[in-house]
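User: I'm preparing a small set of examples for a lab meeting where we compare how different chains pack in three dimensions. I only have the primary sequence for this one, and I'd like the structure in token form so I can line it up with the others. Please keep the answer compact; I'll paste it straight into my notes.
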Amino acid sequence: MIALIMKRKLIFLVILMGLIFVVAGVIRFLANRGPKEGELRVDSQPTATIFLDNKNIGRTPFKDKVEAGEYTIKLVPESATAQLTTWEGAVAVGDNLLTYVNANLSESELATAVDVVWLEKITSKGSELSVTTSPDGATVLVDDATRGVTPLSVSDIPAGDHNLSITSSGFLSRSIKIKTTPGYRLIANFKLALSAGGAPASPSATPTPELSDTPTKAATSSSIQPDPPRPFVLIKDTPTGFLRVRLEPSTSASEAGRVNPGEKYTYSDTENGWYQITYDGKNSGWVSGQYVEKTE
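Assistant: Understood. Below is the structure token output for the 296-residue chain.
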């Protein structure tokens, strides 16, 4: 009988020690876990220094993991030819989620345009879309169908790829590609830029900019250029203030970069009204003939 009691005590002590080790292991694991992180990507035209809560984290284009949370982000443009305005705004970075910032910085705050897009976990199994603009009252189109005016929440948007466009009288139109996901709300915030002279900009006047899973690379060049080797094209004014360079001669092709009105580029090929240019000395892409003037 005594031996049986001792055996039971021994088994109890072994189980108790095992539980203690398990609990200690769990506590150690939780203590050693790093902070929750998300991915922050920032693009700008021109290149800018990035400050997150007043901490310098690098220059655009930027892509890195940051601790999940809410931040104040500031972009300080780097330009040797003009005095451009700094932009500052709020961003949220979710755990294991992407936050994307795309800015077109200008000489005045009124002419600066910024898109900020991120995902937020929701309890619903559906996918949602929330759109805000500065200023309010802009018209929101999803896949070319009007859904309302900002601030706007859409709870019945199908999951998948969509074209999101913003139009407002007196401001340049904005258009990006988005992907909605079940169980998440996609939040898109647009800081709109005044169009030239404050006149309304036509949303259909130029191929729309795109937001893809991979940040695009912006093309840069001097505002004053000598004529390049012929034949070349002169980039004309566009409603957005820049012209998109695409990988293929089509408005549905991915963006390769951006060029600016007044710049000149030698072209090597043409196809269906598109011109293939080398826009930064080494990379090539296609621009629409709608916004170029060719010289042979």
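A couple of notes for your slides: The helical segments are 2-32. Confidence is low (pLDDT under 50) at residues 198-225.

User: Perfect, thanks.
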